[in-house]
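Team,

Forwarding the record for the chain on the shared tracking sheet. I've put the sequence and predicted structure together so nobody has to dig through attachments.
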Amino acid sequence: MTASDAHPAIEAVFRIEAPRLIAGLARVTRDVGRAEELAQDALVAALQQWPSEGVPRNPGAWLMQVAKHRALDDLRRARMLKRKHEEIGRDLDEDDDPVAGIEDALDDEVGDDLLRLIFTACHPVLSVEARLALTLRLIGGLTTEEIARAFLVPESTMAQRLVRAKKALAEAKVPYEVPHGPELANRLASVLEVVYLIFNEGYAATGGEDWVRPALCQEAMRLGRILAGLAPQEPEVHGLVALMELQASRLRARIGPDGEPVLLLDQNRARWDRLLINHGLKALETARRLSTEPSPYVLQAELAACHARANTAEETDWRRIASLYGALFALTPSPVIELNRAVAVSMAEGPAAGLVLVDALASAPALKNYHLLPSVRADFLVKLGRHDEAQAEFTRAAGMTRNRRERDLLLGRAETARQAQGVN
């Protein structure tokens, strides 16, 4: 095998092994940035040796061994410098030997290292944008270029964001640990938020040329499944996994032949992924079994399950969906949730009932620049035969979105509404 043939395979292996490798190194170095550098050093060694020597039977262990030796060398150099600076004329006692300590730590089982790394990458000391980027880099194994492309920023901007994030963690001396007690619930919410934001950016891209980005959805689901394996007794983790899998089951049906958006009621449900639906429903059952009271991701998974169980749009239980949105609003009051409830109410009771709810949201500051508010209102107006008003609302919505596919869809609906005015 030539080096050029081997490199893609080695890089693929590294992407799989990197999260656990970085997690194990971060546990002992207490520095996420340094752990990533050590992992990269191990990759360089693999690129140099594996093409001629072959991929080892346990590539993860090989990479960890190389990184461990580099970490030990660093510590030995640091110890020698310390000795010189302090002019110590005796050797350190074995019990105080930092090299022995790190060697023991690196030989430990991985344990919950990956979970610790996820909680560190999603620490509230970082901005949401930084948490997203760092999670995809450290846990997802995506390159800086890939993350920058996903979030529509220059690679240099994303590189700076990642550097600042790792520096912020180091300066804040963020403990590399899974929090306990009340802090666990708060930090877990942050972790789940990051994973779901990644998923949503793939499911309904906020900008760019593509309506969906399946790779981001896949990455978020992979992260969710890792969390479910590491925190098997947390119902919200299983609820999020269920929610993502049930929503992702529609991805193939969400775009047409030319990449154009296909709305839920117009989708060919034969294209929905039944395997993902079954997995999602099983995860929901697990979440229900663990739940003692309603929780946001479990409720959202219940909503997604209502759609997944309906073989046709007409079979959808819109009254139950409206009720679930009401329960979700009671837990996490949000005008976006109320807007979604308005859609369900309109389907159950008619567009006039939905319009009343939407108009009550018109002054909500959080929805001032939210394109789906005029879009939903326009849809109700079309059904009520008020096409001139609907045209204006669709046009307004199109001016708010940064996604080209969605803008084209809204402008197309505005034109349809304009043509309908002449018919009426």
